[in-house]
């Protein structure tokens, strides 16, 4: 996109304030997801990929390991999506 290019007009019901609120909510969600991922990394002392391998080999406790790995994976994937924008 060049500097002179114009963005399409927003619908009338989308105000600059609502865009700012959406951005703030998105930033807050990204921070929450990052905290979740870091919390699991601290709890298990490893990366998600390593932990999933440990679970698959029976080298980590199944409970709450599997449940945590699902939540951890979901948070990681959602966080990845925030970086695609």
Number of domains: 1
Low-confidence stretches: none
Inertia-based shape: elongated
Residue share in β-strands: under 5%
Mean pLDDT: 91
Q: What Rg do the Cα atoms give?
A: 19 Å
Structural class: mainly alpha
Give a quick account of the main beta sheet: strands, pairing sense, barrel closure: none
Task: Count the beta strands.
Answer: 0
Number of helices: 3
The string of secondary-structure elements, in order, is HHH
- Give the helix proportion (percent range): over 70%
Protein described:
- With 85 residues, this protein is mainly alpha-helical.
- It has one domain.
- Helices cover 72% and strands 0% of the residues.
- It contains 3 helices and no strands.
- Helix 1 (16-44) packs antiparallel against helix 3.
- The chain is elongated and about 55 Å long.
- The two termini are 15 Å apart.
- The model has no long low-confidence stretch (mean pLDDT 91).
